[in-house]
Amino acid sequence: MSLIKSLLNRNTRETKEYRTYSPNTTYNITLDSVPGQLLEIRPFQDNDGIDAGANLLQALHDVRIRNGENVSDAHAFEIWFDRGEFKFRLYAANDRASDRFKRRITNTYTNTEVTPRTSGQAIPKLRPSDHVAAARLSEERHTFLPIRHHNAEGFQHGDPYSDIMGEMLTLDDSLAVVQVIFKPVPKDWTENGPNGESVSDVAADLRSGSVVGFTDPLFWLGLRELEKRDSTSKDKEAAKIVEQQRGEQGFHVNVRVLAASPQPREARERARGIASMFAKYYNATSEQGLDHHPVETSDDEMQRLLAQMSLRKQQDRGMILSIDEVAGLAHVPNRDIEVPQIPWKSTQSGSQIPAEASKDEANTSDVATDQNAVSNAGWMNEAPTDDGGR
Description:
By secondary structure, this protein is α+β, with helices and mostly antiparallel strands.
């Protein structure tokens, strides 16, 4: 068997077979042991959902460059189904960012309640009896090809959260977590993307039939691949869409899925089902979409993932999305989501937090990754390697 055929077979098998990991100890990572601030969101049902999410992200896009390096903080939006109840969380890397987030959410999502969490878990508690399954998401083609979002093609069946959160519904003694990490990129991201390519380069490749993709397992070894094929009408249309991104704001993005249950099959099915919903609903007509990759269940890999999720650590995995794309993945839901056990805020607020006083309130301090706190809480120190292949 050739090396490439062997890699193809191994890639297919490893990226689609979900297995479980047993922690054999209690993982109870408290908020005071990790940096940043976790905000609890109780959404008011009458809000603008994804549209408002795009407006919120635009307000939060704050790039900081130091010595030519992007030192912007990474933040996170999360959905938890924690032992019978949905919870929405927004992670701010520090207190000043937290204050800014509270103001922006209150202004963008009228009547939605935002409360800083001062105690509790950084991520839902894992018990010795739990079996854990997890996945990471990647793009199927070059990151300059956008995934489906509300301003490009739209979601034909409504907010994808309806089915994603439907898959998150699990047994009352089980849990599921979706975590979307986002870190702002400089405004020249469309001119200096992965491998130094620009949107013009990728558009030219699409028109010529040399379609840049990341589907071959050689990419997992750090090699870039060009799929050679005849240019189609979809490719030519995709080329226009790619070029239209010039000037848009963007974010580095990581998407992680975690499921845990005393029943190993339930954990596997929830992790697979949630990740598959992302793969189903964000596919664009250009054949760009999201693919899911189960996390290996070795002790090192699962410990690394759990540490990354707890610390909200962003890893550069070549996924850069525009604000509209990120809004489809990370937004406060509204009444269109017909899923039980959502903690809706049923009353209107008597007063609103005043609008943000100044953009100078934006985060200006670095947040050091406090891996010692994680280690002291019983976690393995996170290895400095990448968080897995795509």
